Amino acid sequence: MFQLKKRDAAGRIADWIIKNQKITTPTLAVVVSPNKQDISPKELKQKFKAELIITNAYIIKNSKNRKTIEEQGLHKFYDWNGPIYTDSGTFQMYSKGSAKIGAKETIQFQQKIGSDIITPLDEFTLPTDTKEIAEEKLKTTIARLKEAKQFVNTTTLFNGPIQGGIYSDLRIHAAKQVNKINPDIYSIGGIVPLMEQYRYKELVETIISVKKNISVARPVHAFGCGHPMIFSLLVSIGIDVFDSAAYSIFAKKGKYMTESGTLNFNELEEFPCSCPICSTLNKKEFTIPDLARHNLYVTFRELRTIREAIRKGTLWDLVETRVTSHPMLYDAYIAAQKHNKYLSKQEPISKKRAYFYLGPESKNRPEIYAVKQRIKRVNINIGTYKWMGLNVPSGMHMTYPFGQCVIPGFYKPKYKIDSKDTVRSILQFQFGKDAKNIITNTTMIEKSKKTKRIRRIWDNKTLLGTLRAHDGFFIPTITGASRIRSELKNKDYSVVVDDDVSEFAKNGKNVFARFVKFADKNIRPGDVVFVTDSKNELLACGLSAMNKKEMKDFDEGVAVHVKHSTETSDK
Ligand code: GUN
Ligand code: ZN
Predict the structure, then answer these.
(1) What CATH number does residue 32 fall under?
(2) How many domains does the chain have?
(3) Would you state the pLDDT for residue 569?
(4) Among candidate residues 314, 345, 376, the one where a domain is terminated
(5) Measured distance CA(108)–CA(38) in Å, rounded
């Protein structure tokens, strides 16, 4: 089970339940070896707060500890009671050449040793592979996945690797095929050489073409990606799981990781880090395992930083800080913005924090793309003003991001705009042109005595809605919602629920994704939406937590946070 909790950009925080154990994504599966493990799984858990480890069936099969593992099982052997993910041996067959493990053999073996997430033997596709070869390998991979799915027991999670090399049509085909197999987790394979060669733009293109073609209700793993410098960018386009052997491989090569790149340990006079290792050891005392520990501390710190940024709604700010540390990362970020139409569908329409302009690339964030589309439908004729090169209708001056922004050199003009026209503009922005019609001669606008800002919108003695203080969005009452609906096309901004749960919605309970029968494609996370039954009767209104595809794909989690409902509110 994978349940969406918080979101920002196209990134998300989710609860991922693996055999009754809950972990939080975005997460890191720490690679552990059956042979020599410098940092014990116990230490991983206690000192690093690791929640998931990953180990390799092929390495275990050839390990001196194979017998012990077969007898004891993985959990006892590693002394780890959390979930254990196993890889098949694909990558080792590619990097070590001759060694082999069979397709059926690896599944049976992973099952036997008690893995919680099993990976079939995909065919590692290189960026240098010709299209013919990539296609051939993909056929083999898909055939093996189909077969493997048959004999993995249903309590164990099944990983669906997606190959296809650098050919976007093959990646799309692979994503669609693997999606049909319905795995519990998707993994994007064959990307290690792209990362090693700093080909981040192709990496981003690959991930986005895959993401567009798979269910949004399952975690997605970037196979072999363990450098924290690219985590925030990859999370912002929808990666949920990373794995790291890099912390240890880099340490052996004397490489000191930071969230903005890699340094040579030997060249450092001081350590730009305050992890328990760097703040206590001097250079001479550092062993290779200590360097590995530092690398892992940085890796986990970056994941916590990312999750906090998602909670605060500042993931783009973090991404822009990180990508400017390497030209190839910056290039990849700019390439990702070519997919703004897609990315903006997952982007919350409003945020709790002000929009920060951090450089020219901030102008092209998906969140700005989204509002550019929306202001096109604001046609209240009260003038416009310049805002980051856009002509913004003056009535939007209170609303996110126009009213809540920090842009050097931009000063908001002083406004004397009719309050009704401001509310009309906001209504058009949120719901479309005709929503403005609910504001009439009998409308009364109530302002805060202290701040003079618009607070409530009345029609005689009936409250139609309020303007939310932090972002200037119109939050209708049930009466307001029903008046807006009468101005719109039937299902605009509507979420139709199963008639079995209409009583719950009417009584103010949140709407769960599982019960959504239909959702308007224009709905974005954070939008005000109308919850109706199959006969188009309004049951409630609230804030959407998901877009259309998410409401369709997810079986778990809240789709609409209900604010007002017909049986309970403002009657
Ligand atoms: N580890 C790194 N890359 C890959 C891959 O493409 N497939 C599998 N199974 N494991 C990997
Ligand atoms: Zn450190």
Answers:
(1) 3.20.20.105
(2) 2
(3) 66
(4) 314
(5) 28
Tokens of 124: 């590692």
Measured in angstroms, how far is the CA atom of residue 12 from the centroid of ligand 2?
A: 27
Specify the ligand 1 atom closest to the Cα of 119.
9
How many angstroms separate the alpha carbon of residue 336 from the centre of ligand 1?
23
pLDDT in tens, 65-86: 999 999 999 999 999 999 999 9
Q: Cβ contacts of residue 285 below 8 Å, gap of 6+?
A: none
- Tell me what pLDDT residue 372 has: 96
In the reported structure, the alpha carbon of residue 224 is separated from the centroid of ligand 1 by a whole-number distance in angstroms of 6
Residue 384 lies in a domain: no
φ, ψ for residue 304, nearest 5 deg: -65, -40
pLDDT value of position 94: 74
Burial class (CB in 10 A: 0-12, 13-18, 19+), 365: buried
Distance 261 CA to ligand 2 centre (A): 13
570 pLDDT tier (thresholds 50, 70, 90)? low
**pLDDT tens string 461-506:** 999 999 999 999 999 999 999 999 999 988 999 999 999 999 999 9
Ligand 1 neighbour 123 (Cβ under 6 A): no
* Distance, CA of 283 to CA of 287 (rounded, Å): 9
Give me Rg for the CA atoms of the chain: 26
Cβ of 109 closer than 6 Å to ligand 1, yes or no, is no
Ligand 1 in contact with 189 (CB < 6 A)?
yes
Residue 430 lies in a domain: no
Would the pLDDT of 115 be above 60? yes
End residue of a domain, out of 314, 341, 361 = 314
Q: Which pLDDT tens digit goes with each residue over 408-419? A: 999 887 778 899
Cα–Cα distance between 349 and 374 in angstroms, integer? 10
pTM, whole model, 2 decimals? 0.97
C-alpha 259/C-alpha 336 separation (Å) is: 20
192 lines ligand 1 (CB under 6 A): yes
Nearest CA to ligand 1 atom 9: 90
Task: Please compute the mean of the pLDDT values over residues 541-554 and round it to a whole number.
Answer: 98
Cα separation, 450 vs 32, whole angstroms = 60
Q: How high is the mean pLDDT of the chain? A: 96
Question: What CATH number does residue 547 fall under?
Answer: 2.30.130.10
Q: Is residue 433 part of a domain?
A: no
Domain span including residue 284: 2-314
Coil, strand or helix at 326: coil
Is residue 527 flagged as an active site residue? Answer: no
CA 114, chain centre distance (Å): 29
Ligand 1 touching residue 58 (CB < 6 A): no
Q: Which helix (H) or strand (E) holds 134?
A: helix 131-151
> Annotated catalytic residue: which of 8, 87, 290, 317?
87
Structure confidence at residue 571 (pLDDT): 47
Nearest CA to ligand 1 atom 5: 189
Please work out whether the CB of residue 161 comes within 6 Å of at least one atom of ligand 1.
Answer: yes
Asked whether residue 400 is assigned to any structural domain, the reply reads no
